[in-house]
Amino acid sequence: MRSSVIGRSTTAVASALLILALGACGSADPSSGTGESGSRAQEEQGASDDGGSTAAAPGDAEPEGSEDDATDVAADGRGADGEDVAAKGATRDQTPGRTAGGECVVPEGSSQIPTGPPEVDEWAMVAGTAAPVSAQYGPYAQDGDLWTCYEHSADGALFAAAYYFAASGQVEGVHEEWLPEGDLRDEAIASESEHVQELDDVSMTLVGYRFQTYTADAATMDIVSETTVPEGTANVGIRVALMWDGDRWVADLENFGEEAYTVESLDGYSPWRG
Question: How far apart are CA 141 and CA 161, in angstroms?
Answer without folding.
Answer: 15
